[in-house]
Write a structure and sequence with these properties.
Shape: globular
Distance between the termini: 11 Å
Number of helices: 6
CATH class: Alpha Beta
Oligomer: single chain
Radius of gyration: 16 Å
Order of helices and strands: EHEHEEEEEEHEHEEHHE
Number of domains: 1
Strand order of the largest sheet: 2-1-3-9-10-12
Length: 229
């Protein structure tokens, strides 16, 4: 019986709290343990992830699912209505001085523990070179929709966020999504359940997660916990 590895990558540079990311990881683990097909998945976490860690873990673990989560970079402007609320962030919105959109990519942790920016082109190259096992990427972080669109050229299904996402909403989506996978739901159905979980938690986020699908792929037919024929 094939086990699918879910690789949880947490980027928490110096000056950010690990609490929200830890809560998200524990929520995913707990939901998978409740699922009827939990024996089909192995949940692996990696913390304070540096850029080269992505390449190393893709080679070593050959995961089926890569889940990236991060916290808002303090050097960016919070343009959301709830400016003091805790947010997940991969990109960081707009530049402080120019208020112009920043280059698309993800923040990782640098060798000096400070944020280091990895452009989307480098991420595409990495998944193309070492991510052949990956069927699903979840970018559970703010403003990650463009990154998801780009990575969908290399991976069957990618979830990204169109705008800001509260920590509670990110966690609720993860619970719904991975609970669905663990109950032998398709990627498409699990994605819908993740969105429903946000609503059930009373978190009426205007910018909901979006599912990007590689050309020619039917997300309704991808069931990770399905018994091999």
């Amino acid at each position: 019986m094939k086990k699918h590895t879910i690789l949880f990558l947490a980027a928490n540079p110096l000056g950010t709290s690990e609490t929200a990311l830890g809560d998200e990881a524990r929520a995913i683990q707990a939901e998978l343990e409740l699922a009827g097909h939990r024996d089909r998945f192995e949940f692996v976490t990696r913390w304070a992830v540096q850029p080269l860690d992505l390449l190393r873990e893709l080679r070593k673990l050959k995961p089926t699912v890569v889940h990236f989560t991060g916290l808002r970079n303090r050097s960016t402007i919070d343009t959301s209505p709830a400016g003091d609320a805790p947010y997940h962030d991969a990109l960081g919105g707009r530049d402080v001085e120019t208020s112009e959109p920043q280059q698309q990519g993800l923040f990782f942790r640098g060798p000096d523990n400070r944020p280091v920016f990895v452009p989307i082109a480098a991420l595409e190259e990495t998944f193309d070179a070492a991510g052949k096992s990956v069927q699903v990427i979840v970018l559970n972080a703010c403003y990650s929709d463009p990154q998801a669109e780009a990575l969908a050229a290399h991976v069957d299904c990618v979830v990204g966020m169109a705008g800001s996402v509260l920590d509670d909403a990110a966690r609720s989506f993860a619970i719904g999504f991975y609970g669905g996978l663990g109950e032998r739901e398709s990627i498409a159905a699990a994605y819908k359940q993740g969105r429903a979980a946000i609503s059930l938690a009373g978190l009426h986020e205007g910018n909901r997660p979006r599912l990007k699908i590689r050309h020619g792929v039917d997300a309704n037919r991808i069931i990770l916990a399905e018994d091999p024929s």
